[in-house]
Amino acid sequence: MPEISRFFGIVIKMFFGDHAPPHFHVEYGSEKAVLDIRTLIVMRGSLSPRALGLVVEWASQHQSELLDLWERSSKNQSLYKVPPLK
Going residue by residue through the chain (86 aa), what tens digit of pLDDT does each one get? Predict the structure, then answer.
């Protein structure tokens, strides 16, 4: 699963050919979650409130890039890195 971004110990990944709806995977220490790209709602798993806030802030800034990456991953095309939250 390619890593597409990393910031403050949070790792964002996306699978090639994953199931709908468009989403990304988050790992923060032992915490794991899957977030819907369009709604930014946690579909599976959980994150601490602080980590979730940072992830939602980052994802809202890069939503169009995440949707583009989702399209690329569904076609098994190479993925690119998304800038981290600063």
Answer: 799 999 999 999 999 989 899 999 999 999 999 999 999 999 999 999 999 999 999 999 999 999 999 999 999 999 999 999 98
Strands of the chain, DSSP E: 3-7, 10-13, 23-28, 31-36, 42-46
* Residue 63 within any structural domain of the chain: yes
pTM over 0.90: yes
CA distance 61 to 76: 24
d(CA 66, CA 59): 8
Q: Which amino acid is at 69?
A: L
Q: Using CA atoms, how far apart are residues 22 and 7, in angstroms rounded to an integer?
A: 21
Is residue 55 in a domain? Answer: yes
Residue 42 lies in a domain: yes
Number of compact structural domains in the chain: 1
